[in-house]
Automatic annotation (TrEMBL):
Species the sequence originates in: Maribacter cobaltidurans
Protein name: histidine kinase
Family matches, as CDD domains: HisKA
E.C. number(s) listed in UniProt: 2.7.13.3
This protein's UniProt keywords: Phosphoprotein
Gene Ontology molecular function terms on file: phosphorelay sensor kinase activity
Enzyme class at the top of the EC tree: transferase
Catalyzed chemical reaction(s): ATP + protein L-histidine = ADP + protein N-phospho-L-histidine
UniProt cross-references to SUPFAM superfamilies, sorted A to Z: ATPase domain of HSP90 chaperone/DNA topoisomerase II/histidine kinase (SSF55874), Calcium-dependent phosphotriesterase (SSF63829), Homodimeric domain of signal transducing histidine kinase (SSF47384), NHL repeat (SSF101898)
Histidine kinase domain location: 989-1201
């Protein structure tokens, strides 16, 4: 039977790989009417819409709230514009015709009010800007002085200017009623074509021709030589319409003219090949443009061409994106079916496609002429063609459930009745006369074209324990690999007729390919496996290794040892070299008929062309002809976040140490299929190597340590071509203030000063305790120098840390430093006792310190009134220069007049101070005091600038001098202490030696007084001798106690007891003595039952006071002893009457051996002992007169535990 072939109509463009993608509001575009397109030098694309200006980075849109005019009529239009000039300045014409300049840093537009009704913008080679208008003429903004000049006005008969183009030193003008050429050099306007009823909309230029689009009147062309416009009607074989509305023209990089029309879609005119391609929107064809009303055209830096539509967003064409030829039903007449392909074969220039349910199709892929054969119109038994084989003469057809048929060269189809009603999954040529047939449920059949079935292998008659055979692949000599649906892999040896099961491959097998050494197995759900027949080793590759899908329908080799795999997720290029797998996946965006392909639908012809069939159609390609996109994309960092706060990309302020979590968003400025772009990044200062993030365009770093960092990121396009220059962002995280170099310097200085302050305070405490002037002077000096040191160094450092206000530092430091300097001068003068050496020099120092105080007051007043901190900062050393000059004079003078060893320390210390300060002035007054401190190990903690080095050395040397003086004073004190100890010992020994003879004299005298029959004279003389002996003994005891007090050997020991009882006993002891002098001793004691006191000390104090009262009181008088407890203290009062108390100098009564005149008897040392004992016990004793010649002694002693 001869086929009744139905030839397809001639179709253009289907095989030229023009495939368009779209970008709409669903992707983030602010509005779907894209009026104008531009690209800045960074690489961002800008889309002007009716509702917003969109900056596109490939992943996200940033929208500026600005509207653009969109008025389109058959004879004219008003469309907004965006334009980026050669200097990357951004210009826009917004609604209604307002010219604006866009500040991208601030995200704001600035209107240029001198020009209104603007329509178009361009720039010449001299960077002058030209602005066309609707009815207001042509304006020029001069690049040199930015002046705006109207070069053409409405009198030039150009009512509306729709487009401008700079070409051959002329500005070409497309306007209402004609096309014009303006020569700026001579300010001359030439008319190229003037037609009153035609409005010209757009201009494009290439080589020696200029192209002009019009409203409703088609396309015109003019050559550079003739400068005459001619209507373009097409070529001899292809015509171009002459009545279309053209809104935009663009020449691409291949010299093809793109023509955007309103209502008629897109035209592409290839003048060298004289071909015209026409694209219109078709909802059934996903690869064509998305709308027929096209407002704007633009080719970006990567070569991608963008089409802005009037309501459907953007379409874009990337010549490198579509890798494969594609054929689907949408490209063919309704009676030709190329979808749901299950088998492929090739006969000369025709490709046979077996479909699942839609018959058998023959198609010529060059002419796209073909036919679909179905049952009823032919002898074809069924619509489901599972396998095909063309053996050079005959096309063998394997059906689902209808067995095997063959078609001869005349198109006659005949049945193979031996193999009827079977499902034939695959047909393989075994030899010129034999075939292998893989069946469902009937095993493997070896079929001879003349003899019929030669062999039948199934689970019942052979070792092939499977009946559902999916595929078969030739192995080495006389062997075949058999892939089954459910039972894994088998190996058939045709010489021995034995079948061996490969137990290491138990998978459900879809496809096989043997390359002579290795068997590749495509499985149903378990990825790709590699089996080595020699070793039995198996390799396994799945989606975890990079495959797009784990169902491998087909495996085909190319000429470069690569495998091409079809799956449910597109086509994969796979190679395995030197133990490493390389995987590249391709999807719908690469021009595939669909993501999903089919079992058995793969074929490789003799020329190396690969064919894969799927649900929607056919793909075919030669692997060596696949071109990769060479564009190396720019990468930009689009956002930086510190925690959740967005940080300006131009912000260089260091981050605080707590701001240690930072996130980066970035984008690859390759806009075609941006989700396929890949990224790698690193953070210098943390990451050693680049980190690959796939298509993830954000990264977050947490808990970064303080330091300097540089974030870098690179991107690749969808073909893995990487950019060369990474986008970078430098930032710094500051140290916590308490561990910065400056803070360490401050803290170290605080410790240093603390040592001096502690020493100074200790010296002051010693002074308060021991009343030594040396301690007072040295302690005061240390405290003063610590203050001086603080002002000169620490104050600057601290203001730098805590306030960042250098003015505050100079505001406080300068007057205070001068003030302390004056105090310091006076102190040194006093400490070195300059006055004792030279009163004149002492006066000079005094008056100089006064001058310093005046300067301090004036500087403070100056700063308060003028706040001219800069002058003080810049001239601080020069401001203090007179102080240093006088210091030179003072040091030399001090060296001359000071005779002690202190002179050497003074001269050395001040030499360091003055020398380093002068060097600081010499090297620059700006840095002498304001340099602060930087951490290093010069002195083990930190170093200062030049002047501060002098201060430090002066402090060290002068402290050494003071230490030397202090040491000398201490040596002298120790010497005196040893002399006192020697004197005390000598006095104690002498007292002991004297008191012994006195006691020997006192005893016999007392015995004699006790004798009877003594005369009055004898009693008087013996009593006088006895009294003087007792007095002398008492005096020696008191002097011994005083000597112990002077030497510091006398201490008091507190014990707890009844003080009341002891005072009663003491008063009773003196009662006899009072009675003997005819006196009355009255005692009043209250409380004092539980006290802490030194018994010996209390006894000596009370005894001396009572003894003194009784001694100096007249006969027949009274002595009063009053004792009581108040506020944990003993209040003791002794009152007696004395003669001549008004003549006594009571302020001297506690002096040793005091007497009020030369003839009176001295008081002795008893009261002096009382005073020193009371003070030792931390109490007080006072004396005063009261009425009637009475004298009162009052003692206040603590009686608590202390």
């Amino acid at each position: 039977m001869v086929l009744n072939t139905i030839e397809a109509q001639d179709l253009v463009l289907a095989h030229d790989r023009f495939s368009f993608n779209e970008l709409t509001v669903d992707d983030g575009l602010s509005q779907n009417s894209v009026i104008s397109i531009a690209q800045d030098t960074t690489g961002f694309l800008w889309f002007a819409t009716q509702d917003g200006l969109n900056r596109y980075d490939g992943r996200e849109f940033q929208i500026v709230n600005e509207q653009f005019e969109d008025v389109t009529r058959p004879s004219y239009s008003k469309l907004g514009k965006v334009y980026i000039d050669h200097e990357n300045n951004f210009w826009a014409i917004t609604n209604p015709g307002t010219l604006k300049f866009y500040d991208r840093n601030k995200g704001q537009f600035h209107s240029i009010k001198s020009i209104d009704s603007a329509s178009v913008i361009t720039q010449d080679l001299d960077k002058n800007i030209y602005i066309g208008t609707y009815g207001k003429g042509l304006f020029k903004i001069n690049n040199t002085n930015r002046d705006t000049i109207q070069v053409l006005n409405k009198s030039n008969s150009i009512l509306r200017i729709y487009d401008l183009l700079e070409w051959q030193d002329h500005i070409w003008i497309a306007g209402s009623g004609g096309v014009y050429s303006y020569e700026p050099k001579n300010n001359r306007l030439d008319t190229i074509l003037k037609v009153s009823n035609i409005n010209f909309s757009s201009l494009a230029q290439k080589k020696n021709n200029i192209y002009v689009g019009s409203y409703q009147k088609g396309l015109f062309i003019a050559s550079a030589q003739e400068k005459k416009l001619k209507l373009f009607k097409g070529f001899s074989q292809e015509k171009f319409p002459t009545s279309i509305v053209i809104l935009d023209l663009m020449m691409d990089s291949y010299d093809r003219l793109w023509v955007a029309t309103y209502g008629q879609g897109l035209y592409i005119i290839d003048f060298p090949s004289e071909k015209i391609k026409h694209f219109t929107a078709d909802k059934n064809n996903p690869h064509t443009i998305n709308y027929n009303d096209i407002l704007s055209l633009f080719q970006d830096s990567s070569g991608t061409i963008w089409l802005g539509s009037d309501g459907a967003g953007l379409s874009y064409y990337d010549e490198y994106l579509s890798k494969f030829n594609s054929l689907t039903n949408e490209q063919l007449p309704l009676n030709i079916n190329v979808d749901i392909i299950r088998s492929i074969a090739k006969e000369n220039n025709n490709v046979w496609l077996g479909t699942s349910g839609k018959g058998l199709t023959r198609i010529n892929l060059k002419t796209l002429k073909g036919t679909t054969i179905k049952p009823g119109a032919s002898n074809l038994k069924g619509n489901r063609i599972m396998s095909l084989l063309y053996d050079g003469q005959t096309l063998w057809i394997g059906h689902q459930e209808h067995g095997l048929q063959k078609m001869d060269s005349n198109g006659i189809i005949t049945d193979i009745k031996e193999i009827d009603n079977l499902t034939i999954w695959k047909i393989l040529k075994a030899s010129e006369s034999q075939l292998w047939l893989c069946t469902r449920n009937h095993g493997l059949i070896r079929y001879d074209k003349e003899k019929g079935i030669l062999a039948h292998y199934n689970s019942k008659n052979s070792s092939l324990n499977a009946d559902n055979i999916r595929t078969i692949e030739p192995g080495n000599s006389n062997s075949y690999w058999i892939g089954t649906e459910l039972n894994g892999l088998f190996l058939l040896d045709t010489e021995t007729d034995k079948i061996k099961q490969i137990k290491s491959i138990p998978d459900k097998i879809k496809s096989l390919y043997y390359d002579g050494k290795t068997l590749w197995i495509g499985t149903n759900g378990n990825g790709l496996k590699c089996y080595d027949p020699t070793t039995g080793n198996t390799l396994h590759f799945t989606t975890q290794n990079g495959l797009a899908n784990n169902v491998i329908y087909g495996i085909l080799p190319d000429g470069e040892n690569n495998l091409w795999l079809s799956s449910n997720k597109g086509i994969t290029k796979f190679s395995h070299k030197k133990g490493r797998a390389s995987i590249e996946n391709y999807g719908n965006y690469n021009g595939l008929q669909s993501y999903e392909f089919n079992t058995g639908a793969y074929f490789r012809d003799k020329e190396g062309t690969l064919y894969f069939g799927g649900l929607e159609g056919l793909n075919w390609f030669k692997p060596e002809q696949i071109h990769f996109n060479p564009f190396k994309p720019n990468t930009v960092i689009t956002q930086v976040k510190v925690f959740d706060d967005v940080r300006s990309l131009s912000d260089v302020i260091p981050l605080k140490h707590v701001q240690n979590t930072i996130a980066f968003n970035f984008a690859s400025l390759q806009f075609s299929q941006p989700k396929l772009n890949k990224y790698k990044y690193r953070l210098q200062g943390l990451d050693e190597d680049w980190i690959f993030s796939g298509n993830k365009n954000e990264v977050r770093y947490t808990n970064l340590s303080p330091g300097k960092y540089k974030f870098e990121v690179l991107s690749s396009n969808y073909d893995g071509v990487w950019g060369e220059s990474p986008a970078a962002y430098d930032f710094e995280i500051e140290q916590p203030w308490h561990i910065t170099n400056m803070a360490v310097a401050v803290f170290t200085s605080f410790v240093f000063q603390g040592c001096f302050i502690a020493i100074g305070l200790f010296m002051l405490l010693l002074y308060l305790r021991l009343h030594r002037r040396d301690y007072l002077l040295y302690g005061t000096y240390i405290l003063l120098f610590a203050t001086y040191f603080f002002l000169r160094i620490d104050l600057e450092l601290q203001t730098g840390i805590f306030t960042n206000n250098r003015n505050l530092f100079y505001y406080i430091l300068t007057p205070t430093l001068l003030l302390v300097t004056g105090i310091f001068i006076q102190f040194v003068s006093s400490f070195a006792d300059i006055k004792s050496y030279s009163p004149k020099f002492s006066r000079e120092l005094y008056w100089f310190s006064i001058v310093v105080y005046i300067i301090a007051a004036l500087s403070l007043l100056y700063l308060l009134t003028t706040q001219d901190f800069g002058l003080v900062k810049d001239r601080l050393n020069l401001f203090l220069l007179p102080l240093h000059i006088f210091s030179i004079y003072a040091v030399i003078k001090a060296y001359i007049i000071v005779k002690s060893t202190l002179r050497y320390y003074i001269i050395l210390g001040n030499f360091f101070l003055i020398a380093f300060t002068m060097v600081g002035v010499y090297f620059g007054s700006k840095n002498a005091f304001s340099g602060g401190a930087e951490a290093n190990n010069v002195f083990g903690f930190y170093s200062f600038n030049i002047s501060q080095m002098g201060v430090f050395l002066e402090l060290i040397v002068f402290s050494m001098g003071l230490g030397h003086k202090f040491y000398s004073v201490e040596m002298e004190k120790n010497k005196m202490q040893k002399i006192d100890e020697l004197k005390t010992k000598l006095f104690t020994d002498i007292s002991h030696e004297i008191r012994t003879p006195l006691s020997l004299v006192s005893g016999p005298l007392e015995n004699q007084l006790n004798r009877k029959n003594l005369t009055e004279k004898d009693i008087k003389e013996l009593t006088m001798a006895k009294n003087n002996t007792d007095r002398l003994t008492e005096l020696f005891s008191q002097m011994t106690d005083l000597s112990l007090l002077d030497s510091g050997q006398r201490t008091f020991k507190l014990t707890q007891g009844n003080l009341n009882s002891q005072l009663v006993q003491l008063s009773e002891t003196f009662q006899y003595k009072a009675n003997s002098k005819k006196m009355t001793l009255r005692t009043t004691i209250q409380g004092l039952h539980n006290c802490w006191f030194d018994k010996d000390m209390i006894e000596k104090i009370v005894s001396n006071l009572l003894s003194n009262a009784i001694k100096y009181a007249p006969e027949n008088s009274s002595v009063l002893l009053d004792a009581k407890e108040k506020d944990n203290a003993l209040l003791l009062t002794v009152v007696n009457v004395t003669k001549g108390s008004s003549n006594m100098d009571l302020s001297k009564i506690f002096k040793r051996f005091y007497q009020d005149n030369d003839t009176s008897e001295g008081i002795g040392v008893g009261l002096a002992l009382v005073k020193e004992l009371v003070e030792l016990a931390q109490g007080t004793v006072t004396v005063g007169t009261i009425e009637n010649n009475q004298i009162q002694f009052s003692v206040n002693l603590p009686v608590n535990q202390r």
